[in-house]
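Figure 2 data, in text form.
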Amino acid sequence: MKSEQIRELIGKMTLEEKAGLCSGENFWNTKEIQRLHIPKVMLSDGPHGLRKQDVKADHLGVNESIQAVCFPAGCATAASFDRELMTEIGEAIGEECQAEGVGVILGPAVNIKRSPLCGRNFEYYSEDPYVASEMAGAFIRGVQSKNIGTSIKHFLANNQEHRRMTSSSDADERTLREIYLAAFEGAVRLSKPWTVMCSYNKINGVYASENPVYLTDILRKEWGFDGYVVSDWGAVNDRVLGLKAGMDLEMPGSGGVNDALIAEAVRSGELEEEVLDKACARILDVIYRYWENKDENAVFDRERDHALAEKAAEASIVLLKNEENVLPLTRERRVAFIGEFAEKPRYQGGGSSHINSFKVTSALEAAAASGLKITYEQGYQTDKDATIEELKNKAVDAAGNAEAAVIFAGLPDNFESEGYDRKHMRLPDCQNELIREICEVQPNTIVVLHNGSPVEMPWVHKVKGLIEAYLGGQAIGEAVVKVLYGEVNPSGRLAETFPLKLEDNPSYLFYQGEGDTVEYREGVFVGYRYYESKKAEVLFPFGYGLSYTQFAFRNMKVDRNSIKDTERITVSVDVTNTGAIAGKEVVQLYVTPASGNVLRPVIELRGFEKVALEPNETKTVTFVLDKRAFAYWDMRLHDWHVLSGEYTIHIAKSVRERILSSTVTVESTEAVPVVYDFNSTIGDIMKDPKGKAILEAAQKQMFAGTQAREMEENAQDSSGAVNHEMMQATMEGMPLRQMLSFIPGIKREMLQQLIDALNQK
């Protein structure tokens, strides 16, 4: 429906109808206005599958939803580093929504993995905003190509489950811009989601649902978002303030209570009716985008989508360790599968994204279907963290009698879920004990992990093989077996750092906060930005992952050695599969910033591409870098800024394994305005070429005569009380006002003249 038609329709609505349109009819549907033939639209949970419930169903998953297909969770698909795959998944879910009459799917979820403890990390993509934004953008494009809306979430700074409905995420402007807003920005600007879901929490003391800085100034005016903002379910605090801020649709409805408040606010003059009209226009636009493109021929082909779920799981599995080429296994080898997850895999997280899968394939079932001779022992129970000696002993015996043992371990459902955060970063103690004892009797031990976030691995040096399967969706069993036996060459890479222990995480001391105050004191040093800047040891670095083949990077080219920040630069590299089998490599591009007086991470991801190569095949991978690749957020300019200087561009296999590097000089075209005053230091003024010239000219007059000779004599004091270095440091740190004390004859008026000259444009 055209905008003028929507305006005409709004003109026919009563005040009560307008107010009512801004809240849900029930738990999952917008309001229908029969008098004006305005249809309702159903929203449904996602984002890794369709979780369609009836109107009586709940948000957190106690009640059943329709049978659907569970794709790998965000923690897994992010590890694929595959935009095309994300788009394909989005297309499949969009088709499912068309077939089931769902107009908006609630996802993708792009919140940053600030800490491994966040109970909802399994749903989020990465600790890196570029990865999160790129994967989300690809998913959005896929879903919306089927004329189904997405709802990118949770906007903003929703990085913990603990007190998520009342806590305030307190972070400075730069931290929000570079890390937490950046995860949304690219996806919103380039992929244009139909809706954005605001989060429960406050941001610097103001609820996200009533924060005009983010919902209007940044989201709409700066980024060009043209859809509606919907509340997370129950996230509304003050309905009228929320509407003023740009929060359009309240879900679920309040039974008319908040609708009446909106209508009364208009009548009293507290709320301009034009604000209400704009909210209605945005809601109606999305409603008609769906209904005018309804596909009556769409089919929910569950078997087809199960096959895609398997493909996605295969692409997302990360091979973390493969000593002595213990993998892939051969069909003839006598192998023991150990662990309850081999029979009943944990393949998704709990809460609002929980899918009622129409079928789930375990590793045991997949092995049997492939005719593999596997022995199996349960080893542990997932419903309690206690060693059951009989189960453990049978598992150890089976492992010792085999030629290789594959232990399926991970986090049970009650260890991580929406609604609460993890208490620690460990696997269940009974699993750690089982792994240790099996390593004592079986040298060829392989561990397959099913988890939504990093875990500590006290046994990592004892196992020969290690596979991170994450929460890989309902087909994870098939995918894992194919990787174990070499039918699939693993190509996943970690989209998050695995620290050695929880205490190493940069947010460790501040995570969850005090009461409702959560301070993001680590600032921009999140994930690998911290570990690399600190040169800290980690278990597995960001971007890491192995393959059954080998890749070589050669012939890195940068098309220009020097650019202005308004220009672009093209970087290319040749990638060759030097091994004997086909495989996929994730080529990663990082930038090390120019040296300067701005505190920045030593390295940041600025590009990635996944490339498929046959043996001996070479392909050229190309990246185009613009200003943002070299910029930081300057809180004086309130904008992105590039420091002039030399930047290093790295082509890498992980943040720790940088293969090729090249430097480029970037010249800033915008100066950061500096205002000098009596507290400006001599050292800071001398760093400014213009300021240096003015100050040096003034110093010739100020330091002339006796005082200059006395200071020179003090600088050469043979007693050792004063030396040249001390004098230099003292001068650099000296504010201009101290000249009044140390230089006889200096008047305040003289300093004011100097300051005026320094500040003259």
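Caption note: The longest helix spans residues 273-291.
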